[in-house]
Amino acid sequence: MKVIEVKNILFFSLLLFVACTEPIDIAEGSDILSELKIIDILFNGSEVTIDWTNVQSAQDQTVRYELFLNQKFIQELTESMSVLDLDYNTNYKAKIIATDSNDNSSELTFSFDTLTSEILFFSDHYGDLTAYDLLTNDILWKRETLTTEVHSIADNKVYSGIGGINAFNIFSGEQVWTYNPNPSQGKEYHDILADSTTVYAFDSSSNLHAVDVATKSTLWTYPFIDHTAPLALDDTHLFACGIDEDHLYAFNKLTGSVDWSFSLDDATSFNVNPLVTDTHIYVGDNMGVIYAIDKMTGIDTWSNNSGSTVPFSASPILSGDHLIIGTINTLYAYHKDTGVLQWSYTPSSGTLFSSPFITNDNVHITISDTNNSQVISLNALNGELNWAYDLTHDSMASPIIYNDVVYCNDLNKQLFAININSSSLDWQIKTNGIVTKSPTLVIGNSEAVVYPSMH
Q: Which of 109, 295, 336, 451 has its CA 20 to 30 Å from the CA of residue 392?
């Protein structure tokens, strides 16, 4: 296992406003202090080091420094350096006042931005939710969660479903709020999906709940006999797959009314979450048939049988005009408008338990093969293999990619970061428990969230 020591130290340009605009030569007997100047501001994760010039007094008196951030007094020092643990994603307006024992002073004001955070969330079979800081390669915090959850993020909150729907601050792990919409059946909540106003989740009896984030109250509930796949969302509708009178439902997000539903025969179900685009919903069933369904009407535009009754187990994803979806045996690419097969890829051995992730016109997916697995990269246009990287054990989780690094895990308690350009290992860590579900990556104050395609 590779030992990690990451020092993400960046230099930031500063906007400096100096009380004295020109350097001053201190004449003998003068009471004026030498000019304050910033030497460097260094960043190592949330740790910020501010280094400034050592101010000189004409009488060689001891100089003390007062540091203020955003008009708040932080500390007094006798050395011309301060090391602080500050919030990520924040602009700080700073002031340093240097004063000698005769109350002569020199003042400097400046501003700087702290680093944009990159936090990876994953849960293990012990039920621990881990927030992992990618800038320092350190664990930020851990909380109890479900072992099989892919975590939804909205407005700097990560959601979990133990004993209710729980919202945790992504930076501290502090519980922001909790709400149980169905205490009699709500010991656990699954497949949580959230936006800025509403959280959606299934309880242990497959009742679907919509919870208002502002009021912590139930907006609406819909009882399914059973739900069969994770939820999907767009600006106006929530899409749910389940066993009821029909098999795919388009709910009005605000009211819970069913705008349309799509039916299969009794032996068929949708076991992967649908892909929602501007015009269509794409979803594969458990009999090897892929459907393109008009998002406004719920009427299928086309369907295509893969030629086998092997269920679609990978969630669909788009790359240009290619709709890519997989069974446990084969990855298929269909034309999104016609359903015509463009290419297929069947590994020589192994099983496709994960869903694909697309970046730069390449498909990335993991293959498991009897205590071994690989991350592979395929050309999304023709299905040709670009590269493969060997992991240490089987892998059940779908990869995610950010900044040309693919993050994935295997059943040997290993989390990998692999550079997709060189197909080489950036780093790996050993997790406390086995991670069977995909990680989620949050950049900054939730401005960007990288989910696996099966979320």
A: 451
Note whether 338 and 364 are within 8 A (CB).
Answer: no
* pLDDT averages per 10-residue partition of the chain, 455 residues: 36 39 39 87 97 86 94 96 98 96 92 98 91 96 81 93 93 96 85 95 94 97 92 96 89 97 89 95 95 97 90 94 96 97 94 93 93 93 97 90 96 95 96 90 96 78
For residue 200, which of 172, 168, 161 has the smallest C-alpha distance? 161
Q: Which tokens in the block code for residue 308?
A: 């086998």
CATH code for residues 15-113 = 2.60.40.10
Name the one residue in this structure whose structure tokens are 């989910």.
451
- Separation between Cα atoms, residue 421 and residue 206, nearest integer Å: 42
Secondary structure percentages of the chain, helix, strand, coil, to 5: 0, 50, 50
The number of residues in the chain equals: 455
Tokens of 388: 């493969």
